[in-house]
Design brief:
The protein is an alpha/beta fold and 387 residues long. The longest helix has 24 residues. The chain is globular and about 70 Å long. It has 2 domains: 109 residues, P-loop containing nucleotide triphosphate hydrolases (Rossmann fold, 3-Layer(aba) Sandwich), CATH 3.40.50; 260 residues, no CATH class. A hairpin with a 2-residue loop joins β12 and β13. The relative contact order is 0.10. Helices cover 41% and strands 17% of the residues.
Amino acid sequence: MYSRFFTPPKETFFLFGPRGTGKSTLIKDSYTSAQVIDLLDPDTFLSLTAAPARLTGLIDASPSVTHWVIDEVQRIPDLLPLVHKLIEKHKGLRFILTGSSARKLRRTSSDLLGGRALECQLHPFLAAELAMDFNLERALTIGMLPLVWSAERPESTLKSYLSLYMQTEVVAEGLVKSIPTFSRFLEAISFSQGNLINFSSIGRDCGVDRKTIQAYVAILEDLLVAFRLPVFSKKAKRELVSHEKFYYFDAGVYRTIRPAGPLDQPQEIDGAALETLIIQQVRAWASYREQAEQLYFWRSRGGAEVDLIVYGKKGIWAIEIKNSGRVRPEDLTGLKEFGRDYPMAERILLYRGKHREVISGITCIPTVDFLAQLAPNADLPLVALSN
């Protein structure tokens, strides 16, 4: 068991996150006296689907229970209005509502309990949560999902994990018309990992139009298994690209989906996995801090690029990620160009070497050091690392 950086709020809240991030385990450990309603249990699911009002009866029959957990609440959206009424009726009652997707919930209740519940997200492990157990090579191979990290056969668990999503989320909910086409899409878009999304090109590979591909990407985002990074264009001083970048949320998931053959160069897949891992870690860091830091990338029409921009009230941090053991002059080009447009930015290059150094005002940090210290309880760790 590892201590997670996520701190549950005291009031009613939603806890969203992809399957396997440890939502149920975290909540059960945090609320040992809570009553759990598990909607993955077939009997419970069928009972409450047939008559959602039974939830009120369950709670009224246990007046001494103050905390109720509804696990995978998105499976029965009709429970939300009842939860809303129960919160209003019993002022001391608290609900913890977990889910792997908010898609169906937002269709029935766009404001999710009328703003009476916080929305939180649980991410895969942070390296700092694993502490001495963190291993970079292992993380790049199997990812950081708790379900996979603790498995005896992580590669097999990853394959089963993806099949589970296809079966329980995509197929069972009828989210797509053609499962074979969607399966081809999952592979096709893996070649766009860390790259600009070209919906038309992916559509041609899958034999569908761009609107279908856009809908498929939206499904992955709703299921929290993918995200997009927008281009950083605040007070832009040069012409920038307009397309967003695509990422599967976890390096292990990406590697499992991405086909690899004799024409694929290992360093290309390894580089995308490293970029995925670091961006996933910074996303989790920003989410748990609740300081409203936003993530972007930067690329000019001329080709200058920075992999990750962290923008918040306290500053701008430009992070370039290199899967190499030494820093080459050309590795700094994007950061230098970004510094010309945003001289106030803190510029950082992460690489696979062992030494910290400052080159042309750019702080070069070993990836392992960066990840080990990336904890949300430290204020602006990116600055602290560069000092």
